[in-house]
Amino acid sequence: MGAILGAAALLALLVLFALLAASADARTPRSFFGVVPQTQLAEQDFEMMGDAKVGTLRFELRWAGIDPTSAPDDYDWSGPDFIIAQAARNRVGTLPFVYSTPDWVAKLDDRCKRDCGPYAPRKGPALRAWKGFLEAAVQRYGPGGAFWAEHPELPQKPIRAWQIWNEQNSPSFYKPRPKVKHYAKLLRAGHQAITGVDRKAEVVLGGMFGTPLQGRKPAIAAWDYLKKLYRVKGAKRTFEGVAPHPYAAKFKNGNKTVLAQLDLFREAMRKGGDPNADLWITELGWSSADGGNPLNRGRRGQAARLKQAFKYFEKHRRKLNIRTVDWYSWRDHLNAPDGALCAWCPESGLIEEDYDPKPSLRAFMRFTGGR
After folding, report:
1. d(CA 137, CA 193)
2. pLDDT tens digits, 160-170
3. Closest by CA position to 225, among listed 238, 208, 237
């Protein structure tokens, strides 16, 4: 009898452990809830992010600023060092999108003479420079990287996912015009460089806005761009994640909503034989301004849209394989130079320019458990 009771107790204990493990696995990871800045970041930004329990900070790893000349090993890592150190200190993970070609690299392609950031590398020498930069970045910020060795006092939060470019389906970010085959070469070279240093690193497509220029050429609708990319031989093996930027006035109930756009992305993934690829929603947001633009929703409306979107994505994160949802933006930028931001962007922050929190920050923290 004692043996039977002992076996029953052991079985009950195993069931309990299984339930606890399932419960832990079902919890939404902190990295799921992220933000994207549109301003320079100061220590106060990172302290507030830490208090709010922001999980992921998506930021630009600006190649042109870090590698301004063709001299070997002249990298200036001071900018990203500050961001990554402050993020780690406040328990915030980082997701870099690598963007902005140095002028000297663009000249190797004979495509641009100055202000060459949006001219992505295309040919052999320029692509080799691209690979060299990415290898150096992973060696510095990836697992066991030089940055972490230099800062043993910091929590170790190495970068394990790298996003290649930004909105490459738009001529605003990919000049002189979007070319899927050219981006596929950039992506292939980037994947080789990154995984050559960190075999388990993940490569994520540059985030794509649904319909740049309101669908006019030479812009390419994001889902059409993705379909074309899947048709490029071998391209599917060069990335692990697809990154929508599904901006829309409404979240659901319509053919131009956030969810309608995600359906088009997922249809392209299915047709490309990649239905289970991870989704990284690396930009999503609305403005707290009133009127004048469909994405201006007012202070309460901004918070309501955030709550609606985050609640849906958290509930369906497993079904849709969503890795992160990153709010654009972190802080308002009312005094941006003309043309530097989109029409509704200046008041898209969770906090005001002077760091006063908005209702949308309180809505964000209801999901993260921040304070």
Report:
1. 10
2. 999 999 999 99
3. 208
- 15 — phi, psi (to 5°)? -60, -40
CA distance linking residue 207 with residue 34, whole number of Å: 14
Residue 182 lies in a domain: no
Handedness of CA 267, 270, 271, 277 (dihedral sign): positive
Q: Does a structural domain hold residue 305? A: yes
Q: Are 347 and 359 a contacting pair, CB within 8 Å?
A: no
Is the pLDDT confidence value at 340 over 80? yes
Calpha distance 202→55 (Å, rounded): 18
Range of the domain at 305: 292-371
Q: Is residue 104 assigned to a domain?
A: no
- How many independent structural domains does the chain possess? 1
Going by pLDDT thresholds of 50, 70 and 90, the confidence category of residue 13 is very low
Q: Is residue 22 part of a domain?
A: no
For residues 279-307, one letter each, b for 16 or more C-beta atoms within 10 angstroms of the residue's C-beta and e for the rest, the string is bbbbbbbbbbbeeeeebbbbeebbbbbbb
Question: How far, in Å, CA of 8 to CA of 14, rounded?
Answer: 10
> End-to-end alpha-carbon separation of the chain, Å?
53
